[in-house]
Write a structure and sequence with these properties.
single chain, mainly alpha, MetI-like fold, 16 helices, globular
Length: 339
């Protein structure tokens, strides 16, 4: 099968996934406790007639299948609904907040790879050594401690006790004028505008949330890197290469190449997970991303932003999986030929 046909077939296969996600999220948000009409009617003390009028205006008095059909029709026309909290279309809100979440996720993911890959490699090259024990402790500890606990500890130690980190109140200091918005990524916009004061402030506020996300996410990457490389080093091709007298660097390079496929898959899954799991991190650090937007919508019984958040995360999951498939073909061409 040609590359273009494979791309079209994989993209077509994502349509049922996204449709199922939309239906599941719609039903789930409508069975959650909380009435959007009562929230808009200024709280639970509002009269039943006022709440009934708001429900009729929002279409909440219709049967659930009818509401679902209207929602799917709107999605087909590019309408993701409107948030009654912000008063803006959900798609506009998500588009404005997505760069902040992506900047945080990419920074944490890069930090994860910078720590997990060398640590997992060193642990595989020296089993039962200090590096191996450090990898085990780090992976077990990172898997056991929730990300919000790590975030709160980092804030308490580095901001409250030591005073080394800036206050966790957003992406940039309130006393510094933000750079002109070109890409939505604060660091990149500051660099393009040559605003090094804004760049330093944004980098300082990005550090702690990135470390909090990376500390929880590096465990699976380091553990799988160690296991995959350890298995390859004990395989017959590597033993044969060593017996033939090939240089150790060449043998290690070949082993790393053979161990890449499961590591790439694990890293891609970790990145996808980080996109959806940054809700609590964003709330702790007052980060204006899609995660905090969804959490605010949940507290306000605002259904449309919740549905839009889950649908956007599902779409990014699909794109990440597609990128992983392309990387697999680059690493091992037999994957593409077999497909």
């Amino acid at each position: 099968m040609s590359f273009a046909r494979r791309v079209v077939s994989r993209l077509a296969a994502t349509v049922p996934v996204l449709a199922g996600t939309a239906v599941f999220t719609f039903v789930l948000t409508h069975v959650l406790p909380g009435d959007p009409a009562a929230f808009l009617a200024s709280g639970p003390n509002a009269g039943p007639e006022e709440i009934a009028q708001i429900r009729a205006r929002m279409g909440l008095d219709l049967p659930l299948p009818t509401q679902l059909w209207h929602y799917l029709q709107a999605l087909a026309h590019g309408d993701w609904g409107q948030s009654h909290t912000t008063g803006q279309p959900v798609l506009t809100d998500l588009w404005q907040r997505l760069p902040a979440s992506l900047e945080l996720t990419v920074a944490a993911f890069v930090l994860t790879l910078l720590v997990a890959l060398p640590l997992g490699t060193a642990a595989a090259l020296r089993p039962r050594s200090l590096w191996d024990r450090a990898c085990t402790v780090l992976t077990v500890g990172g898997s056991c401690v929730p990300s919000f606990v790590i975030a709160l500890l980092l804030v308490y130690v580095f901001y409250f006790l030591l005073g080394w980190a800036p206050e966790p109140t957003g992406r940039i200091d309130a006393m510094i004028e933000p750079p002109p918005v070109r890409t939505g990524f604060m660091l990149l916009d500051a660099a393009l505008a040559l605003r090094w004061d804004a760049f330093a402030s944004a980098a300082g506020r990005l550090l702690l949330p990135s470390v909090a996300m990376a500390a929880f996410s590096l465990a699976p990457v380091a553990r799988l890197t160690r296991a995959s490389l350890l298995g390859v080093l004990r395989s017959d091709p590597v033993r044969t290469a060593r017996a033939l007298g090939l240089p150790p660097r060449a043998v290690l390079a070949g082993a790393l190449h053979l161990a890449l496929l499961p590591v790439v898959t694990s890293a891609g899954m970790v990145f996808s997970y980080m996109l959806s799991a940054n809700v609590v991190i964003e709330k702790v650090f007052a980060w204006p991303g899609i995660g905090s937007y969804a959490l605010d919508a949940l507290m306000a019984a605002d259904h449309a932003p919740l549905q839009g958040f889950v649908l956007l995360v599902a779409l990014m999951f699909v794109l990440v999986n597609f990128a992983i498939d392309l990387l697999h073909e680059r690493i091992d061409p037999r994957v593409g030929s077999a497909a």
